Amino acid sequence: MNAPDSFPQLLARAREPFPSSSKAYIPGSRADLRVPVRDIRLTNGETVSVYDTSGPYTDPAVTIDVRRGLPSVRGAWIAERGDTESYAGRAPEAIDDGRKDETAGQLAALREQAAGLQRQPRRARSGANVTQMHYARRGIVTPEMEYVALRENGKREWMRAYLSDAARERRLAGHPLGASLPPVITPEFVRDEVARGRAIIPANINHPEVEPMAIGRNFLVKINANIGNSAVTSSIEQEVEKLVWATRWGADNVMDLSTGKNIHTTRDWIVRNSPVPIGTVPIYQALEKVGGIAEDLTWEVFRDTLVEQAEQGVDYFTIHAGVRLAFIHLTARRRTGIVSRGGSIMAKWCMAHHQESFLYTHFEDICDIMKRYDVAFSLGDGLRPGCTADANDEAQFAELRTLGDLTHIAWKHDVQTMIEGPGHVPMHLIEANMSEQLKTCHEAPFYTLGPLTIDCSPGYDHIASAIGAAMIGWMGTAMLCYVTPKEHLGLPDRDDVRQGIIAYKIAAHAADVAKGHPGARSRDDALSQARFEFRWLDQFNLSLDPETALAFHDETLPKDSAKVAHFCSMCGPKFCSMKITQEVREYAAAKGLADGEAIADGLAAKADEFKRGGGSLYVPAPEAGS
Amino acid sequence: MNAPDSFPQLLARAREPFPSSSKAYIPGSRADLRVPVRDIRLTNGETVSVYDTSGPYTDPAVTIDVRRGLPSVRGAWIAERGDTESYAGRAPEAIDDGRKDETAGQLAALREQAAGLQRQPRRARSGANVTQMHYARRGIVTPEMEYVALRENGKREWMRAYLSDAARERRLAGHPLGASLPPVITPEFVRDEVARGRAIIPANINHPEVEPMAIGRNFLVKINANIGNSAVTSSIEQEVEKLVWATRWGADNVMDLSTGKNIHTTRDWIVRNSPVPIGTVPIYQALEKVGGIAEDLTWEVFRDTLVEQAEQGVDYFTIHAGVRLAFIHLTARRRTGIVSRGGSIMAKWCMAHHQESFLYTHFEDICDIMKRYDVAFSLGDGLRPGCTADANDEAQFAELRTLGDLTHIAWKHDVQTMIEGPGHVPMHLIEANMSEQLKTCHEAPFYTLGPLTIDCSPGYDHIASAIGAAMIGWMGTAMLCYVTPKEHLGLPDRDDVRQGIIAYKIAAHAADVAKGHPGARSRDDALSQARFEFRWLDQFNLSLDPETALAFHDETLPKDSAKVAHFCSMCGPKFCSMKITQEVREYAAAKGLADGEAIADGLAAKADEFKRGGGSLYVPAPEAGS
């Protein structure tokens, strides 16, 4: 393991602002509420602001020391509410990092390096409930909700143009398919969505560094990136670097799925340095604590793990409480059985003990923990299909109905809840997934992994799944869990993470555009305009991955002069359709037809004139002729 | 330019059979009708056959000399029909290769290298019509139709399983959305589809090397790859190599969009070495012949170019005859105007002359040429939207209606016809494209470029467009024109071609699966089964890109022992869900529950028993509790 001192170098590339971009902040109703956006300066003097998930890393004004963690965003807000208390917290154990006592020496060194990341945990005062849902239901608009509202709106320069042009742009208004997207998101709207369970704001009181964001069908579609070391490969540095890298490219959430040694300490590094909500699957760590023997899991070990992770600041837990003993037999005839790690662990436990899952029987006990820290549920789909042949089968839908029932229980405790979904689903079965989820889970946000629309594309499953993700995102899924090119094959590296994220930014953005989210098209329109006007640099800088766009262009035309050329290497100078179109317009203008309308009128007149005079040149009208 | 002798080296990689794969042939009704498939041998002794576009290149038994071209497939069939004659053909001119006389010396050397690729052209005897549609409408089942039928069916071992299991697999039967997919494709079915214009078999009588294939909504969804040098970059060798490379990875058709010098000679190399139909956009070459000045184009130059290319064996021509003078003004307010190269050339011509397009006024003259060689129309969408903001506008649909009218005229001449479609279309507007096309173009095959569902992903437009392509393919599009990662940025190289093709194989396959094409799922199911049984090599070999799948896996677990390991680097040995699922099944089996059904019954009984005895452990039923 390298010394932590190497982090600054590792992170250097991820700290560079994007080209021609700078961090800006939208001011809120209080001085400590400033919502980040990325301003992209165009060569024509305009600025386009885009949603920014990269946190303070891309703000050169912020000093960052990954050994001490990010500055707090929400600390004052949490303190002001006066319903939490700091406390000693659970005593750390060697087993938290998958260690036996004999390796405690190594562990001490490891933890020493993370000393600057230790915080005194907070919890709800006795009897209090500190979830955003609890506040929302009591009519309280929290700073987190205001933050989300400002963030969803962005600067809205472009949005205003679209709203005023609504009539003219009707064909582009989108089909929301049941979503209800207001032109402007107000803090009160956010509160209402959270109160009715249709959106969540994952924000553990022990993760004050988080920049609040919402997951819900009436907000922008979000994406999640998975990171995490495994027993086979990868280190803490790699994981922290992947976290920062993932948020740079647009991950709205990150799940730490570490399964090897050092899980606890890795999590300290990740949570303290993360501007986005962090999710985990606590059963992974619990299993490490019992030596990897599923049968040896107990409610007590699991409960202790929940508290451990809640104290560290994890924002949502995947809990596979829908994998019930009675459903396991439904997977017996499946082509690929149970493909969820957590689901298979619980299935094994249920089988071995011939008992109902302790996640199910202790579900209300879990709620009691969640609401003391505001950890949100991500109710896991342990019986999701692992291949298209198993899609939408009885095992999957039996579990989904259970998740709907558990949602009601969670909501009884005002615990924020989202529902995980598949997986592998052919296109014709996607809609049923969404409609069943909306119906059985009462519009709790849906959070799907893809789905992959075919099974035979390992190495390219980010593409096979982006197809399904875009479709289900349009239909109402609130967050899309990315799939990288390494899915089914190995752990993703840095470049795989980027590939997966961009594929999912595309899917989420395609969904936003199709839903008609106000302003979603603004980035596309600005880029298309730049394309038409041969502002190559603007075209690159407005793209989801400016580095790659520039590099691809420069492979064939590297000179600076090509950045203002009125053609590219695809067609060469004679064949550029956009150049010819501009010539057509200039030609018409030179004939005294000054603007678009005049060109149109002039051309129409000429065409009519031509028709009247030269009709004999036409082929017989097809209606008459064939 | 390198000597042609370097081709064998360049092509060596593309000639290697895929791992564990061999070429097999399905015999037809005559000795010279043998339809290629690729047999993939699995480690469990099974074989999976897949559709094979790679031609003789992947058959080690065939000697290939790219300086002489591929062996003839259809020569005897064409000759037997007795309705064609060979003739001297048009005399080649220096301008065919974009040359003035002063460079005739260079040209002679260029053409000398292609001497082995020259053929005496054939044409229909006077008064004859040699199109597959003409034969079909007269009730003739050609060998080409039989070939297509056998090719679409494949070996059908897997299909039979699906057909017999139809009842059990109902949820997986697909939603054909108006397509009519018979379980077995007969030659007569092919004839009927071609006769009614719902499918085409692009097969110029001067391209006897082609392995016939069908494009139609009731067949497998096909993909097209574009290659072609431009004035800025690339050489003949690169283009021939890209052709072979593209068919290796699954291109069903290839369009040669060359625009620089040496167009004619490049085309000789490409057509003579292509096992798949070749399409072109003849206006590109016509423009070269008039020095790149759109206004100088004439019907005579264009007509001469059509004959030139028809004699060389081009199988379909993109003709932008729907770009009418009266429609140009409809593009004046567009964000990106006209983005089709051919469309913009014709718009400029119309504007400059204030005349109707000669492609429109001479459409029946064009039909007369097409039917003498059986060149199919690909009616170009010159007014397709170049950004999502321009999607489904009046310019686009006015042109589409004209293409429908022109389809009727083409069909009057029995000329095979498909219709090109966009382009850039947000998801919510895709369905209207398909339904308008089906309605206005009378089910003539639709052939779309993507569509891209967003505009802001240059560098990743293969993904943004694969989403739209999969959706519109499901809805009825017959062929998907690929988009590479270089789209909008530069000319694709070898790896870009592969990336684009695999993205489109995914889209086309996802569409086939969703439509419920019989047998389409077989490859996915075989791969999923291999995945579940940890047959790693089979998993790689069944994938669309075995090389990449293997390489990605080996990045973290390179040892041979990992190819039989019951885990991978993603989760490590403790967390492999599939391994745990198998353990669950083994555990149940050890308890005397021998097969899936018994496991299911046994588990259900245990669960019931548990419920009866331990009901108090349950949380209150949600229906009652909240």
Any chance you could write out the topology, listing elements then pairs?
The structure is a homodimer of 626-residue chains.
Chain A: H1 7-15, E1 21-27, E2 34-41, E3 47-51, H2 75-81, E4 84-86, H3 104-113, E5 122-124, H4 132-137, H5 143-153, H6 157-164, H7 187-195, E6 199-200, E7 215-216, E8 222-227, H8 236-249, E9 253-256, H9 263-272, E10 278-280, H10 282-289, H11 299-312, E11 316-319, H12 325-328, H13 341-353, H14 358-361, H15 363-373, E12 376-379, H16 394-412, E13 417-421, H17 430-440, E14 446-449, H18 461-475, E15 479-481, H19 494-515, H20 522-532, H21 536-541, H22 546-556, H23 577-590, H24 596-614, H25 622-625
Parallel strand pairs in A: 8-9, 8-15, 9-10, 10-11, 11-12, 12-13, 13-14, 14-15
Antiparallel strand pairs in A: 1-2, 2-3, 4-5, 6-7
Helix pairs in contact in A: 1-8, 5-7, 8-9, 8-19, 10-11, 11-15, 17-18, 18-19
| Oligomeric form | homodimer
Give the chain pair forming the largest contact, with residue counts: A-B, 162 and 163 residues
Can you give the helix content of chain A as a percent range?
40-55%
Number of separate domains of chain A: 2
As a percent range, the share of strand residues of chain A is 5-15%
**CATH third-level topology of the largest domain in chain A:** TIM Barrel
